[in-house]
Amino acid sequence: MTFAATVLTLYPEMFPGPLGISLAGRALAEARWSLDAVQIRDFATDRHRSVDDTPAGGGSGMVMRADVLARAVDAARERQPAAPLIAMTPRGRPLTQERVRALAAGPGVTILCGRFEAMDERLFEARDIEQVSIGDYVLSGGEIGALVLLDACIRLLPGVMGAASSGDDESFETGLLEYPHYTRPVEWEGRTIPEVLRSGDHAAVDAWRLSRAEADTRLRRPDLWERHEGARVRSPSGARREKKDR
Ligand code: ADE
User: Fold this and answer.
1) Could you state, in order of their start, the residue ranges of all structural domains in the chain?
2) What's the average model confidence in pLDDT over 113-123?
3) Quick check: CB of 145 below 6 Å from ligand 1?
4) Closest ligand 1 atom to the C-alpha of 137?
5) DSSP string covering the chain, please?
């Protein structure tokens, strides 16, 4: 089954962009996913084909018009009713690997890319649209966010990454950052690869990797670590709860 991506944008020429090369590009050529980049301006109805206007209440920047966006969204939904509809905005819920996995398992996605200051809020009241952010910083538009979201989904599609994508150890898949990696040469600038990784003792390697994943997550991402520990406390085994309550 082809994962069908529709992107609603003022800059369709930004797509597939980086998704046209390497893994995603090959997968596109093999029709493991498809891409339809739709020009939002085609849904404007006035002589000037305007898609934005000045913000109510004053202030800087321009706001994308709800009527134009709704027409673009409705047309996309009609073509692909089963695909989740996502708007890229810094006001959205932060994208997670869990959400990416769920999207990649579905029929595809329709992504609305904002430009200018914002999209008219009434669009989100009137239509069922999931608002997604790719991080707590502001981009000049939603297109790069859409590329990020699509890249994360495409690499999970069947046949795209082969054996590499089966990596359940990958960062976030376990709720932890992934352990560090090494390759030859064994010694570089006086630094060696940790002895255990050269021992051939698979159980010891697994134990080392888990302990590094835990230590690095605790140090670098206390927010992730907190959630991970919280999940363990709530887990049915209750093993952690006993330890914590003591
Ligand atoms: N558009 C502008 N900034 C964004 C962000 N951080 N995430 C998603 N879309 C955006």
Assistant:
1) 3-154, 169-246
2) 96
3) yes
4) 6
5) --EEEEEEES-GGGSSGGGGSHHHHHHHHTTSEEEEEEEGGGG--STT---EEPPTT--SS-EE-HHHHHHHHHHHHHH-TTS-EEEEEEEEEEP-HHHHHHHHTSSEEEEEE--SSEE-THHHHHS--EEEESSSS--SSSHHHHHHHHHHHHTTSTTTSGGGGG-TTSTTTTSSPPPP---S-SEETTEE--GGGGS--HHHHHHHHHHHHHHHHHHH-HHHHHHHHHHHHHSTT-HHHHHHH-
**pLDDT of 234:** 81
Report which protein residue has its CA nearest ligand 1's atom 5: 90
**Which fold, 169-246?**
Trp Operon Repressor; Chain A (1.10.1270)
136 lines ligand 1 (CB under 6 A): no
Fold of 3-154: Alpha/beta knot (3.40.1280)
pLDDT tens figures, 141-169: 999 999 999 999 999 999 999 866 555 77
